[in-house]
Structures are given as C-alpha cells and as structure tokens.
Design brief:
- With 332 residues, the protein is of the alpha/beta class.
- The protein has two domains: 161 residues, Medium-chain alcohol dehydrogenases, catalytic domain (Quinone Oxidoreductase, Chain A, domain 1), CATH 3.90.180.10; 143 residues, NAD(P)-binding Rossmann-like Domain (Rossmann fold), CATH 3.40.50.
- Helix content is 30%, strand content 25%.
- The chain is built from ten helices and 15 strands.
- The longest helix is centred in the C-terminal third of the chain and has 16 residues.
C-alpha cells in the first residue's frame, strides 16, 4: 500500500511517501480502506519528536480516518464488510497511524458513518468532535441554558464546541478574526461572535454574559491561557476547560479563583476510555443525522502531500499564521 511515513523525527520534510506492507487485522481489528484522514497538532508534535511516541520506524502518523470496512478479525463483530466507518485515537501508545491506503484499527475505536456525513466530514470532525464533546459533557458537565465561551469559533475544536454546545442547549459566545469568520461562526449556531482583536472585547463579553451572572464554561483552545483575565469573566461555580498548551506556565490568581468556587479541569481526549469516546461519537452521529454537524474543512491535500499539510498545520498552530479556518484533510 501507499503510505505517508517517516523513519526519523524532525521537520515536515522527514515525511516520505511510498510503499509499505499492507496491514493484517488482528482478532479484534477491522481493516479499513481509507478514504480520508485529518491532520491534528498532535501529529506534528509526534513527527517533530516533541511528544516522544515515535519509537518504531517506519512510523505512520495520523489519528483520524474515515473509510470502508474491507475485512474483520475473527473476534471483531461490530462491523461488516462494506460498512462505512470513522474513528480517531490512532498512532498513539503503539497503535498504528492512518496516513495510508489501508489501516487496521481495533473495532473499539471505530464508529458507523451516518449517510448524512461524507468521508471528508467524518475524518475532519473525528478528533475535534470527540474532544469538544468530552470537554463539554464528561468534564464540564454542561447543562441546558448555560453560557459557553470558546476562542476560535471557526477552528477545528472551536467550531465543534460551538455546534455541540448549541445542540446541548447552551448560549454560545465565540471569538474569531475577521468578518468572514464571524459569518461562518454565526452559521454554525453561535449566539454572539466577537472579533478577538477588538480593544473592548472583554466589555462585550461581560455584556453578553451579565444576565447570566458570568460565563459558566470557558472552553480554552489557546496554547497560552490568560487566567487573570478569564477568571474575572466567570460566573460563580463556573468551569474552565483546558486542552492545549503543553509548554504554558501562566500566572494564576488563586484568590479570585477559590472565593468564587470556580473549577479548572484539564484533559486530553487520548486518555478517555473507548466507552467514553464511543458515547461522544454516538452523540456526534446523532447530531449529524439531525443536520446539526458540519465539520469545518480548511484545505484538502493528497496523501502524497502530507509534508506540505504538516507544514501548514505548524504554521497555524505554532506560528499563528491565521491561514487556516478548519481542518486539513488528506485523501489517498
């Protein structure tokens, strides 16, 4: 099979494209003919060696995939040949990556793809959708009528938070950069969309959240959180959710935090159990069937262009290029 892989960690240029042996599914695995995969920041961290998970080479990156079942292992009973499936949480902890024409994936990490979702959408929304749902419901315990704030309302995780929180009955406030992204975010269902570059941004946030007494859930997608500012905008017993910023070491105002009964939770979707991730995936599938799930796709590359796709992801994740409004998808 053709695959994108690397034999040493380093810059995007270490990614090669060529032939590797076809995978053989184990007893509980499903062989998927890959139709689409997505690029995530974690893929670039592993390739760069920042996250030391690439130890066996050649290493195929990629967490997300969507495609069609080609074969099932002897003990895999959830899917049949010909079914469309999607999944995430691959290329981690010894699991093989997805940037290839075929992938052998344990059935516990796969979900049926609804007719309402294309393979591109299924791959683009996999990791970010599960992340958003886990953060909102498993960790922040979202309740109907609460106010949810998210930075980057048209980004991968941000746009997922907007849609899933809105479907959960929240009033959603998001920030974006520019009028085009503002319109895009409003179409996703956000109740209020603000330009993060505005000098009076926090005044607008306060006005929106004031009838509620402040923000109930602050879903932080930025790599450098500003707790001094954020905590002052929260409602008593509000929850701050962190899912990015491995190297961040920001100051933390302990007093205003504890006297307002606030809670701070950090999580990585990779730590969630198969059952927890499946619950999120089933909620996403249900939302898709109702027409309320539209993963944002920023660019589509061929799998052979994986190095260029990684470079674009890094430019936006690490260097703030602002040239991407949605997920990067690759197709064989």
């Amino acid at each position: 099979m053709k695959a994108a892989y690397f034999t040493e960690t380093g810059p995007p240029e270490v990614i090669q494209y060529g032939d590797l042996p076809d995978p053989t599914p184990g007893p509980t695995e499903v062989l998927v003919k890959v139709a689409a995969v997505a690029v995530n920041p974690i893929d670039t961290y592993i390739r760069a060696g920042t996250v030391a998970l690439a130890v066996d080479f050649p290493y195929i990156p990629g967490c997300d995939l969507a495609g069609t079942v080609e074969a099932c292992g002897a003990k895999a009973g959830r899917f049949k040949t010909g079914m469309r499936v999607w999944g995430s949480n691959q290329s981690l902890f010894g699991r093989r990556g997805t940037f290839a024409e075929y992938a052998a994936v344990d059935e516990k990490w796969l979900y049926p793809t609804p007719d309402a979702m294309t393979d591109r959408e299924a791959a683009a929304g996999a990791l970010v959708g599960i992340t958003a749902h886990l953060g909102l419901f498993l960790h922040a315990r979202l309740q109907r009528g609460e106010v949810v704030f998210v930075n980057g309302g048209t980004g991968g995780v941000g746009s997922s938070v907007v849609q899933i929180a809105k479907a959960g009955g929240a009033r959603v406030l998001a920030t974006v950069g520019g009028e085009e992204k503002q319109r895009q975010c409003e179409q996703l269902g956000a109740d209020c969309v603000l330009d993060y570059r505005a000098g009076d941004l926090d005044d607008h946030i306060r006005r929106f959240a004031q009838p509620n007494g402040g923000i109930d859930i602050w879903f932080e997608t930025l790599r450098e959180p500003t707790f001094e500012r954020t905590i002052g905008l929260m409602k008593k017993r509000g929850r701050l959710v962190l899912m990015a910023g491995r190297e961040a070491r920001p100051p933390f105002p302990v007093g205003p935090f504890y006297v307002n009964d606030l809670r701070l939770v950090g999580f990585a979707m990779f730590n969630a159990s198969p059952d927890e991730q499946r619950e999120s995936a089933e909620a996403i599938n249900s939302l898709a069937r109702q027409g309320g799930w539209k993963p944002q796709i920023g660019r589509v590359f061929k799998l052979a262009e994986a190095a260029a796709a990684h470079r674009l992801q890094e430019d936006n994740t690490l260097r703030g290029a602002g040239t991407l409004k949605g997920k990067i998808v690759l197709e064989p």
